[in-house]
Specification:
Length: 425
């Protein structure tokens, strides 16, 4: 890929991070087909979901060592799904089931026939395997659906093709991409990100940039290499983690004194600081040089499924052409990866984290009245307060948004034969 193309791709993702909380490019939809789909039939969907609410991946002691501040205790070990997270994900999956029963993909009564639904979860973490099980239980209640995965702890090529050797990252391209990100951050850090970092700096370590105790979150980024792999270092990346951990405490339902050290109006604070989290995603996992190899297997599977071609899972089982609903239980990284690969951007008015727990991306294939087939991308989510209260979102209304598919000339209804990844390399 030429450097000018890479800069353009990076610029688009940085713009997404900078406009977090705005109207962005997504448009509200409903479960009832719009005029363009009048008389159409929903034939097949592929869902890709982030797991439920988890605890921070580092312990309170480790977080204190990083930030100099005390962090709340969680009821589960680091990185594990919480009971509240289970309840919120169950509510989200109930809503998904309702949406696709209303749209006629799932039977209005009774259970799907054998082989109609396939659920596959990432084996890397307990939280993804458990999320797959919860979604199997609630997508079609009392129907005995099962979620499958590789043995616990195994790297799965569907979620990380590079980690299994199924795809290879071009380290020179990756290094160049990150070098450009460092330069762009130095010269053109978006104003919402500047505001987020300044707010976090004042909250976490007011004197951290003057040589006193605590981290400097507003410092510039640097490029480093470890064991031949390039990565970014600097305060904005730690700020991203801090912002996400505060969000997790809030949606876990922790009392005000345990969210951001009792800062008043935590919801408003999150809206201010979470652009730092979106910015870090844009600089790293949404970079094409990283996203494309990582998501090579999953993106190809989605294209094959939309074309009724069989897909072989990592356990050597097959998703056949008659399977109508396929669900992959993964991570926020999975959503960001597919967003980069298919040119999908989104943001929510009621949720400042655009890859928050339970957020689900759908690829829906519709057969039009004339017999032609189109694919529609839809992002579904729980608002911040819905996630905090473990409430079901309205996925027939403002909980679901149609996404223009960037790799299909920005159309919302992409001819099935034209669904493909961004062609950048």
């Amino acid at each position: 890929m030429k450097s000018t193309s890479l800069a353009r791709a990076l610029g688009a993702t940085l713009l997404l991070a900078a406009t977090l909380g705005s109207n962005a490019q997504a448009t509200e939809t409903s479960a009832t087909p719009d005029s363009a789909l009048a008389g159409a039939t929903l034939e097949k969907i592929v869902l890709v979901a982030r797991h439920g609410v988890r605890s921070p991946t580092r312990s309170p002691a480790e977080l204190k060592a990083q930030t100099g501040r005390d962090w709340p205790a969680w009821p589960v070990p680091p990185g594990q799904l919480t009971e509240h997270g289970r309840a919120a994900l169950a509510a989200m999956t109930d809503a998904l089931g309702q949406r696709y029963r209303l749209l006629g993909l799932l039977p209005a009564t009774g259970c799907p026939a054998p082989g109609i639904v396939a659920i596959w979860a990432d084996a890397a973490d307990d939280r993804t395997r458990q999320s797959g099980t919860i979604m199997a239980e609630h997508l079609a209640p009392r129907c005995g659906l099962q979620s499958h995965a590789l043995p616990a702890g195994h790297t799965d090529p569907f979620f990380n093709a590079v980690g299994t050797g199924a795809a290879k990252r071009d380290e020179a391209r990756a290094t160049n991409a990150l070098a450009q990100a460092v330069a762009r951050d130095r010269d053109h850090r978006p104003q919402p990100v500047q505001a987020a970092l300044a707010r976090l700096q004042a909250l976490v370590a007011p004197d951290g940039c003057t040589g006193a105790a605590g981290p400097c979150l507003t410092e510039g980024l640097t490029l480093s290499t470890s064991h031949g792999t390039p990565h970014l270092k600097g305060g904005p990346l730690l700020a991203s983690t801090i912002a996400e951990n505060m969000m997790l405490a809030y949606v876990q339902g922790m009392p005000p004194e345990q969210v951001a050290w009792g800062t008043p109006d935590a919801a408003a604070l999150l809206a201010t600081i979470l652009p730092a989290h979106g910015y870090a995603a844009a600089l790293t996992r949404r970079q094409p040089a990283f996203a494309f190899p990582r998501g090579a297997v999953l993106s190809r599977a989605i294209i094959d499924l939309m074309a009724d071609r069989p897909v072989i899972l990592p356990d050597h089982s097959e998703i056949g052409p008659n399977t109508r609903l396929v669900l992959f239980a993964g991570h926020d990284t999975t959503l960001d990866t597919l967003g980069a690969i298919f040119g999908l951007d989104w943001a929510f008015a009621d949720q400042p984290d655009f890859t928050a727990p339970d957020t689900t991306l759908a690829f829906e294939r519709w057969r039009l009245k004339d017999g032609s087939r189109v694919v529609r991308a839809v992002i579904m989510h729980q608002g911040l307060e819905q996630l905090r209260a473990a409430r079901q979102p309205d996925l027939t209304g403002n909980g679901a948004t149609i996404l223009p598919i960037g790799t299909c000339a920005g159309t919302a209804l992409c001819p099935a034969a034209d669904l493909h990844p961004t062609r950048i390399f």
